[in-house]
């Protein structure tokens, strides 16, 4: 079955981010892909390292839920999407805090696999919600 680029991203997000199925990383990603996690930072992560990091995220937010708010794609394999994450923080600072923060992610799809990723999230809001920051700073994402 051939999936559209947006269907690939929707399945990847559901399997990885909502079902917490770490095997989705290998299933949906090109092994030579590049992940840009912060503006200006390029980091290639092997599947094992990405799995380790996300397992840590799921331990800290065991009820992690990602909702796709909007998605755009073009005929060149590029998919951008706006999302919200909700969950209950189980880490340091203020265990049990409810979190709700937004982000934007852009993927490049090649041959049915995620090849390149850029993303940004409202980390200031998240840090405030878990008690890591004492001032609330809103990052307004379109």
Keywords for this entry:
142 residues, alpha+beta, six-stranded mixed sheet, 6 strands
Please, could you describe this protein's structure?
It is a single chain. The protein has 142 residues and is of the alpha+beta class. It has 4 helices and 6 strands, in the order H-H-E-E-H-E-E-E-E-H. The protein has helices spanning 5-18, 23-28, 47-60, 123-129; strands spanning 29-38, 41-43, 65-73, 78-88, 98-110, 113-121. It has a 6-stranded mixed β-sheet with strand order 2-1-6-5-4-3. The chain is globular and about 45 Å long. The model has no long low-confidence stretch (mean pLDDT 88).
Short characterization:
By secondary structure, the chain is α+β, with helices and mostly antiparallel strands. It is built from 4 helices and 6 strands, in the order ααββαββββα.
Helix content: 25-40%
- Outline: globular
Task: Give the distance, in angstroms, between the N- and C-terminal Cα atoms.
Answer: 34 Å
Task: Extract low-pLDDT stretches.
Answer: none
Summing up helix and strand content along with how strands pair, one would put the structural category as alpha+beta
Order of helices and strands: HHEEHEEEEH
How would you characterize the largest beta sheet?
6 strands, mixed
Determine the mean pLDDT: 88
Beta-strand percent range: 35-45%
Number of strands: 6
Radius of gyration from the alpha-carbon trace, in angstroms: 15 Å
Strands across the major sheet, in which order? 2-1-6-5-4-3
Number of helices: 4
